[in-house]
């Protein structure tokens, strides 16, 4: 509500991957459909989760909640790169998790790529330094190149966890400083 958006009006929510800091709380969007990659659902409900080191970044409740949404006709699956609506693209970038998807958005400053955890920090992509939470390190490294190519220029790529994002982009209002970044504005260096 801080952004003036009523969660009940939201129709589509993109789940980039199912790690606990990117999933859950689906019931807060009672009228939304959730967009997820086939590979992610298979990953979080299959054999890989028998490995504690792979499942430790997932919360079982989040996974069960998503399964319930599948049975409630609230999930739209995507298999690889796809267009959600004109101007919003989904891009399968495995490596961090098997079904991670980054999102490209046409904005007033042109196309930007929201990498999510396909790029935790600017330096992961810039220096091709893999992040420590990884399912497939080769695919993670390939993913850095993919999001870089999709973005086309460094200032069009937005990493998922870099505190520099909040420093480089202005807040939409004074009270949202440090909480929300206006990614459609040009970043400072
Ligand atoms: Zn993650």
Can you summarize this structure?
By secondary structure, this protein is α/β, with parallel strands linked by helices. Helices cover 26% and strands 20% of the residues. The protein has one domain (7-176): Metallo-beta-lactamase, Chain A, CATH 3.60.15.10.
**Strand coverage percent:** 15-25%
CATH 2nd-level architecture: 4-Layer Sandwich
Biggest sheet, in brief?
5 strands, mixed
Strand tally, please? 8
CATH class: Alpha Beta
Series of H and E elements: EEHHHEEEEEHHEH
What Rg, in angstroms, do the CA atoms define? 16 Å
CATH topology category name: Metallo-beta-lactamase, Chain A
Low-confidence stretches: none
Distinct ligands, ions and cofactors found in the model:
zinc ion
Tell me what you see in this structure.
The chain is α/β, with parallel strands linked by helices and 189 residues long. The chain has one domain: Ribonuclease Z/Hydroxyacylglutathione hydrolase-like (Metallo-beta-lactamase, Chain A, 4-Layer Sandwich), CATH 3.60.15.10. It is built from six helices and eight strands. The chain has helices at residues 38-45, 52-55, 60-71, 122-126, 137-151, 164-168, and strands at 12-14, 33-37, 75-78, 82-85, 88-92, 101-107, 110-116, 157-159. The chain has a five-stranded mixed β-sheet with strand order 4-5-6-7-8, covered by helices on one side. Strands 1-2-3 form a three-stranded parallel β-sheet. β4 (82-85) and β5 form a beta hairpin. The model has no long low-confidence stretch (mean pLDDT 96). Bound molecules: zinc ion.
């Amino acid at each position: 509500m801080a952004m003036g958006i009523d969660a009940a009006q939201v129709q589509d929510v993109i789940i980039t991957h199912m790690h606990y800091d990117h999933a859950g709380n689906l019931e807060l969007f009672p009228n939304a459909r959730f967009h997820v990659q086939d590979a992610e659902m298979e990953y979080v409900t299959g054999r890989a989760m028998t490995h504690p080191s792979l499942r430790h970044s997932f919360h079982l409740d989040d996974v069960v909640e998503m399964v319930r949404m599948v049975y409630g006709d609230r999930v739209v699956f995507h298999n690889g790169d796809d267009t959600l609506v004109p101007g919003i693209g989904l891009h399968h970038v495995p490596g961090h998790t098997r079904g991670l998807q980054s999102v490209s958005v046409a904005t007033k400053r042109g196309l930007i790529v929201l990498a999510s955890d396909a790029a935790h920090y600017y330096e992961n992509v810039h220096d091709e330094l893999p992040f420590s939470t990884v399912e497939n390190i080769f695919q993670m490294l390939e993913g850095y190149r993919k999001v870089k190519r999709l973005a086309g220029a460094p200032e069009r790529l937005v990493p998922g966890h870099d505190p520099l994002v909040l420093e480089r982009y202005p807040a939409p209002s004074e009270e949202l400083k440090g909480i929300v970044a206006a990614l459609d504005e040009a970043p400072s260096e």
